[in-house]
Design a protein that fits this description.
It holds the Pfam family Pyr_redox_2. β12, α7 (199-212) and β13 (215-217) form a beta-alpha-beta unit. The protein is built from ten helices and 21 strands. It has helices at residues 12-24, 26-30, 50-55, 122-125, 132-143, 163-177, 199-212, 255-259, 299-317, 359-376, and strands spanning 3-8, 34-40, 44-46, 65-67, 76-80, 83-87, 92-95, 100-102, 105-108, 112-114, 148-154, 184-189, 215-217, 222-226, 231-234, 239-241, 244-248, 251-253, 284-286, 330-335, 341-346.
């Protein structure tokens, strides 16, 4: 009987890992010794980092969409269905369409979702760029902005931790190009005692903010928002007025994780930091945003983890021990404006250090936006 590997989630991590496994084990698939199933809840694949550019009117939505079927390699069976429950003890998943799918190995790559209702008033008046509809709404607000106080509030955790900084730098440049910067006050807030969770990034951002006259406020934890009076109330007792509110919503794990009794209260899965296996279960791997690992929830994280998961699955399916370990590697571009960018790379042992921002790095970032579709197929 053929062995079966099921991938839950057809985002960056799930698609990359499934494609890598199918490419390396094509002979086993052709001999009907292996079956690979990839489940996704939509037939469209969206490049989520593109939402940042859409919100700032730098790109159109169509550029960041592809048919999911066109992105998978031969040997991967793509099924459009949502997962209702993971029955870990029975090695079976139950889909919302009522299908029971047993597995030999399961890869959970269900990502994270923004919670727009975690803060009272957020959905009504805070403008985000973490979904396409929110990005388009924010684009309209920026286009009609005449001047005033722009406040960014940041909920944690959230996908792509450097994205809020990128947005502020790019907004600053956009307003300067439009001749509106002198009429705008830009305020960036963060919930802890520095401007970013990573100390080197926070120190770099503080210097950049000073150059650009962007005000940074720390220990700023939002309790509620009053849409009628355009006011943010914080747990620290502050009341801050705004004309335009940019909100980074807190993220949580996919509902199926909590429904299956596998994760913590926020839906994150307890994951071994090196093997990427679900703690206490030898038949389930976890990658990308779904993990509870203390590293960035970012596309590059899922990319590097997908390589580890695919290699270890190959070992296990061939009766070998899974010896490939994840070292916590993350690489992130950081747009520092409309024409320049920097980057950081780090792992469990090596802290990040932002490089000097250059136009060339910005061009590399734009180039990767185009090459993303190739990386999904495991070609780069």
């Amino acid at each position: 009987m053929a062995k079966r590997v099921v991938f839950l989630g057809a985002g960056t991590g799930g698609t990359m890992a499934a494609n890598r496994l199918a490419r390396e084990m094509s002979e086993e698939i052709q001999r009907n010794e292996l079956e690979i199933i990839l489940l996704g809840d939509t037939d469209q694949h969206v490049y989520q980092p593109g939402f940042l550019y859409i919100a700032l009117d730098r790109e159109i939505p169509e550029k960041y969409k592809r048919s999911q079927q066109q992105l998978i390699v031969p040997g991967v069976q793509f099924v459009v269905d949502s997962v209702k429950e993971i029955q870990a003890q029975q090695r079976t998943i139950i889909t919302k369409k009522g299908h029971r799918i047993p597995y030999d190995f399961l890869v959970v790559a269900t990502g994270s979702v923004p919670n727009l209702d975690s803060i009272p008033g957020f959905r009504q008046d805070a403008n985000s760029f973490y979904t396409l509809s929110e990005a388009l709404r924010l684009r309209e607000k920026i286009q009609s902005f005449k001047g005033g106080k722009v406040v960014m509030i940041v909920g944690v955790p959230h996908k792509c931790p450097v994205a809020p900084l990128e947005f502020m730098f790019m907004l600053d440049d956009s307003l300067r190009q439009a001749g509106k910067r002198e009429d705008a006050e830009l305020v960036y807030t963060y919930p802890i005692g520095r401007l970013h969770s990573l100390v080197p990034v926070a120190e770099w951002a503080e210097k950049e903010f000073e150059k650009r006259n962007i005000k940074g406020e720390t220990f700023f934890n939002v309790e509620s928002i009053d849409p009628a009076n355009h006011t943010v109330f914080t747990l620290e007792g502050e009341e801050v007025k705004y004309d335009l509110l940019i909100g980074i919503p807190p993220h949580e794990g996919a509902p199926v994780i909590r429904n299956s009794g596998l994760g913590d209260a926020e839906g994150w899965l307890p994951t071994d930091p090196k093997t990427l296996k679900l703690k206490g279960n030898e038949h389930i791997y976890v990658l990308g945003d779904a993990t509870d690992l203390p590293i960035s929830k970012a596309g590059s994280t899922a990319h590097y983890q997908s390589e580890v998961v695919a290699r270890n699955l190959i070992h296990e399916l061939r009766g070998e021990p899974p010896t490939t370990l994840y070292n916590g590697k993350v690489f992130c571009f950081i747009e520092s404006g409309l024409e320049e960018a920097t980057h950081i790379t780090f792992d469990y042992r090596t802290p990040p250090q932002p490089a000097k921002a250059t136009t060339m790095t910005h061009m590399f970032k734009l180039a990767f936006n185009e090459m993303y579709w190739l990386s999904l197929r495991g070609l780069i």
